[in-house]
Automatic annotation (TrEMBL):
Alphabetically ordered keywords of this record: Amino-acid biosynthesis, ATP-binding, Cytoplasm, Kinase, Nucleotide-binding, Proline biosynthesis, Transferase
Aspartate/glutamate/uridylate kinase domain location: 8-240
KW Kinase (keyword) present: yes
Domain of life assignment: Bacteria
Native organism: Limosilactobacillus allomucosae
Top-level enzyme category: transferase
A family per Pfam: AA_kinase
Origin organism lineage: Bacteria, Bacillati, Bacillota, Bacilli, Lactobacillales
Record-annotated membrane-spanning stretches: none
Record's catalysed reaction(s): L-glutamate + ATP = L-glutamyl 5-phosphate + ADP
Entry function: Catalyzes the transfer of a phosphate group to glutamate to form L-glutamate 5-phosphate.
Name of the protein in question: Glutamate 5-kinase
């Protein structure tokens, strides 16, 4: 397997890595995420973060744990929580001397050529200034009722689209699970981790089912859709456990962690630092 040097990377973090099981915001986890991405940014990598968690943060700030059923209420919750989420990110990244910016996107924004050009130009301009763009779906406008073309089913898909559009070398998807297994480990105690996927065979597709946790949405199905987008663009993706986001540094250093999707292997950027 030929090793490819990583310079530009997208990290996707799911709600389960940002919100604890009791519904409170996982501040230590967000701090470690900010530390890891700042370290990479500082070492010359170009980093984009795709972060879920708006609804989770909204629930936490209202001291609730159950998502409301009505779409408008979910959207109100996301718009409330997005501010809280970015307040925390902003604070934590600043502790590591890194500036961040926010982009809230719908699928239209990446599909219609003029919108797409504007979005991509914005991301490029931010990366040139070593500012970390933090992207989430624009939940308050992302429904068919509001006459938008389509919605992202989940941020997994959004992260893969962003990664391929900006020509990222690597997408790291942080989840509540160690990687892709041959069946859902939450339902099957004998499930085995699949370490490398160069191609999405029918057996691999059959292994993936939906989410079995309270806060997650897409489960493994949307993660495999993301992997498909990445494999079609001949890029690399690593799906791993985001319990400790410092795992990102190990992945970028080429350590075999979680499930690696791709036909190349990871070569870290040559920096003056040996390892993080
Ligand atoms: N083959 C599989 N391998 C691993 N996890 C699977 C598989 N099939 C279904 N899952 C489920 O997908 C979940 C991860 O997706 P999700 O709950 O959406 O998490 P996140 O919030 O991290 O995006 C796992 O916790 C697991 O229950
Ligand atoms: N845009 C939504 C993402 C919804 C969601 O739960 O996504 P994920 O945790 O990535 O499965 C939010 O910020 O709450």
């Amino acid at each position: 397997m030929e090793a490819k040097m990583i310079r530009r990377l997208v990290v996707k973090v799911g709600t389960s890595s940002l919100v604890m099981k009791n519904g409170r915001i996982n501040l230590p986890s967000i701090d470690r995420l900010a530390y890891s991405l700042s370290a990479l940014n500082n070492a010359g990598y170009q980093v984009v973060l795709v972060s879920s968690g708006a609804m989770g943060a909204g629930l936490a700030s209202l001291n609730k744990t159950q998502r409301p059923a009505a779409i408008a209420e979910q959207q109100a919750l996301a718009s409330l929580g997005q501010v809280e989420l970015m307040r925390i990110y902003s604070q934590r990244f600043l502790d590591y001397q890194t500036r961040i910016a926010q982009l809230l996107l719908t699928r239209d924004n990446l599909e219609y050529p003029l919108n797409r050009t504007n979005v991509l130009n914005t991301i490029e301009a931010l990366l040139q200034q070593k500012i970390v763009p933090i992207i989430n779906e624009n939940d308050p406008v992302s429904v068919d009722e509001l006459d938008h073309h389509t919605t992202f089913s989940d941020n997994d898909e959004l992260s893969a689209l962003v990664a391929t559009r900006i020509g990222a070398d690597l997408l790291i998807v942080l989840s509540d699970i160690d990687g892709l297994f041959d069946k859902d480990p939450h339902k099957n105690a004998d499930a085995k981790l699949i370490e490398n996927v160069a191609e999405l065979t029918p057996t691999i597709r059959l292994s993936a089912t939906g989410s079995s946790t309270r806060f997650g949405t897409g489960g493994m199905v949307t993660k495999l859709k993301a992997a498909e987008t990445i494999l079609n663009a001949d890029r690399q993706m690593v799906l791993c456990n985001g319990q400790d986001p410092r795992v990102i540094l190990k992945v970028v250093n080429g350590q075999p962690i979680g499930t690696h999707f791709g036909r190349h292997s990871i070569k870290p950027l040559a920096t003056d630092k040996e390892e993080f």
